[in-house]
Amino acid sequence: MDKFFEEAVSQARKSFEEGGIPIGSVIVYKGEILGKGHNKRIQQGSVVLHGEMDALENAGRQTAEVYRHSVLYTTLSPCPMCTGAILLYGIPKVVIGENKTFLGSEDLLRSQGVEVVVLDNPECINLMNSFIELHPDIWYEDIGEQD
């Protein structure tokens, strides 16, 4: 497993252990981690601290040039909010752990020229399925009921 993706998975595990939604993310620039984070909706009562947003926040202010040469790793397909941030900052590549439990805005990313790689990682799928089974009310609070 790629070391950067492994760190994103580690962040997802951390969130799960804290009682939060197991989604982790890492932003990498020139082979170095700029920022890493995990979903903190539950832990901090936040409406915006998804894994990707937490990683961006922890990366701090960066120039557009840095973002345009970065890769974002995330354990779950990015929602519309996180997709918007990826597009806003011009991040050219997103590596996604899985999109079976939730299919985010991958088509929008692709339509804007972002390279999207989906790994179908079993651990990511299992973490999300475990969380959804244990806490369906929390999961659907954010994304709404699924058909």
Structure description:
A 5-stranded mixed sheet has the order 2-1-3-4-5. Helix 1 packs parallel to helix 7 (122-134) and helix 7 crosses helix 8 (136-143). It is α/β, with parallel strands linked by helices and 147 residues long. The chain has helices at residues 3-17, 41-44, 51-59, 64-67, 80-89, 106-111, 122-134, 136-143; strands at residues 24-29, 32-38, 70-76, 93-98, 115-118. It starts with a helix and ends with a helix. The mean pLDDT is 95.
Short structural description:
The chain has 147 residues and is an alpha/beta fold. The chain is built from eight helices and five strands.
Topology:
Blueprint: H1 3-17, E1 24-29, E2 32-38, H2 41-44, H3 51-59, H4 64-67, E3 70-76, H5 80-89, E4 93-98, H6 106-111, E5 115-118, H7 122-134, H8 136-143
Parallel strand pairs: 3-4, 4-5
Antiparallel strand pairs: 1-2, 1-3
Helix pairs in contact: 1-7, 7-8
Features:
147 residues, alpha/beta, five-stranded mixed beta sheet, 47% helix, globular
Which radius of gyration do the C-alpha atoms yield? 14 Å
Helix-strand pattern: HEEHHHEHEHEHH
Helix content: 40-55%
Instruction: Indicate the overall shape.
Output: globular
Indicate the low-confidence ranges by residue numbers: none
